[in-house]
Amino acid sequence: MSKSDVEQSSDSEGNDATAATKPTLWQRFKAHMKKWWWVYLIAFIVIVLVTVLPIIYVGIPHFANKYINDYDYDYTGLVISNPRPTAFHVKQKKLMNMGGGFSGSGHLSAFNASIRVPDTDEEFAVFPVPQIDFNGGATLDIDQDLDLSCVDCLADIAVKAATNKSFAVLATGHPDLKLGALPTAHLNIHKTLDMNGYNVTEFVNENGAFNVTSLDLLDPPVNGYNFNATISVRNPTPFSVEMGHVTFNLTMGGDELGYVDLPNLKLEENISDNIVLGNVDKSKLIQEALLGDGTGATVTIGVRGHSCDYNGQDIPYFSAAIRAVSANATIDLLNYASSLLG
Ligand SMILES: *[C@@H]1O[C@H](CO)[C@@H](O)[C@H](O)[C@H]1NC(C)=O
Ligand SMILES: *[C@@H]1O[C@H](CO)[C@@H](O)[C@H](O)[C@H]1NC(C)=O
Ligand SMILES: *[C@@H]1O[C@H](CO)[C@@H](O)[C@H](O)[C@H]1NC(C)=O
Ligand SMILES: *[C@@H]1O[C@H](CO)[C@@H](O)[C@H](O)[C@H]1NC(C)=O
Ligand SMILES: *[C@@H]1O[C@H](CO)[C@@H](O)[C@H](O)[C@H]1NC(C)=O
Ligand SMILES: *[C@@H]1O[C@H](CO)[C@@H](O)[C@H](O)[C@H]1NC(C)=O
Ligand SMILES: *[C@@H]1O[C@H](CO)[C@@H](O)[C@H](O)[C@H]1NC(C)=O
Ligand SMILES: *[C@@H]1O[C@H](CO)[C@@H](O)[C@H](O)[C@H]1NC(C)=O
Fold first, then answer.
1. Transmembrane ranges (predicted)?
2. Spatial separation of the C-alpha atoms in residues 223 and 279, rounded to whole Å
């Protein structure tokens, strides 16, 4: 989501009794607040982190770099963890440069930001924004749960985000703003953010998104798994996301080949290694390699997202995103011949 993808389609801000006092500072401040940085922040956390990130975890470094660099806010170090069916944890401590020629001290009071689907006006999340103190810059210290009140709404958005459809969210909230000696201003945030989704299928099929770095056959099978592998996954974003137990179905030439489990998928900064346990039809695999198109032992395996759960509970908003993943992985079995034949 570059800045141009975010259209401001409805703005309104309230200020009580403050405009007359120090117009210059107030005007400057209003101009600054027009950047709506906290609304972007909230919308980003809710929509992008929860829906888009899990989807784009394999690949698209260029896309994501642009996506992030075009943003004013620096998300380095943001951690999404402990996903539950109706909540997850967000943590980040960050110094922010306010920019925009704004200086002075004050604070934006803590407030509950409500995130809605504009058409239905259904609230699906409340993000408790902590008090933010300014002093030239600001320190944002977030370490709290984000509760989801309409998981289906978020799952719908996840699917739209994953299939290149446009969607919108409405953020509302009523924080108080205290700036220097000025009287407290009561803000009325009411903002619709229009965003475009992205074609996940295209993204996950880019080269270099993930590599199989080790592969061991389990013979006899362990807990129904007949292989154990490690994959290295590129995280194109500067934050980390704990997704939990993720399952993919595998196909070959349109037929079922088996499945893989990633018992604890975590996307850390840059590249992270994740354990994969799986069960595949070995004879089909070897047959395909031998009878293939004559280019060595290369096989193409279809990878379809199936589910995501954490502590045994389905995480519907991640599942929806995972189910949008469809990729073809090309693997040269000769690279793993020693473990396959050993
Ligand atoms: C946010 O909502 C919760 C739950 O309704 C409430 O306990 C809390 O005081 C609210 N926070 C603010 C800053 O209004
Ligand atoms: C996604 O949708 C936008 C606007 O509808 C379109 O311009 C773009 O080409 C689409 N991208 C893909 C990959 O289909
Ligand atoms: C996404 O990209 C794939 C592969 O390029 C294409 O087959 C599919 O139609 C695209 N989906 C959408 C919704 O644009
Ligand atoms: C799979 O491999 C990893 C790393 O080599 C190891 O820690 C783990 O115990 C293995 N799991 C099974 C079920 O063999
Ligand atoms: C996968 O391997 C290619 C080629 O060695 C490399 O360029 C790429 O960075 C690797 N990707 C990951 C996620 O390790
Ligand atoms: C994945 O496999 C499961 C179990 O075999 C099956 O129920 C499900 O329909 C499959 N999903 C997809 C998307 O192929
Ligand atoms: C990730 O990559 C960036 C840019 O290459 C580097 O500055 C940073 O230290 C890396 N982080 C980790 C944890 O390796
Ligand atoms: C994967 O390969 C199959 C068969 O080769 C093809 O039909 C399908 O469109 C490919 N999927 C993607 C996402 O490239």
1. 37-60
2. 10
Residues contacting ligand 8 via CB (< 6 Å): 201, 205, 300, 302, 326-328
Computed on alpha carbons and rounded to an integer, the radius of gyration of the chain in Å comes to 23
Give the SS3 label for residue 238.
coil
Select from 199, 206, 328 the residue to mutate for testing ligand 3; criterion: most ligand atoms less than 8 Å from CB. 199
Query: How crowded is the C-beta side of 71, counted as CA atoms within 13 Å?
Result: 26
Kindly report whether the global pTM for this prediction surpasses the value 0.85: no
Instruction: Assign 3-class secondary structure to 41-95.
Output: HHHHHHHHHHHHHHHHCCCCHHHHHHHHHCCCCCCCCCEEEEEECCEEEEEEEEE
203: tokens are 């993204």
Residue range 26-196 forms a domain whose CATH class is mainly beta
Mean pLDDT of 66-81: 55
Kindly report, residue by residue over 76-116, the tens digit of the pLDDT.
677 889 999 988 888 887 766 544 444 567 777 888 888 88
Question: CA 96, CA 79: separation in Å to the nearest integer?
Answer: 17
Region(s) of the chain under CATH 2.60.40: 26-196, 201-341
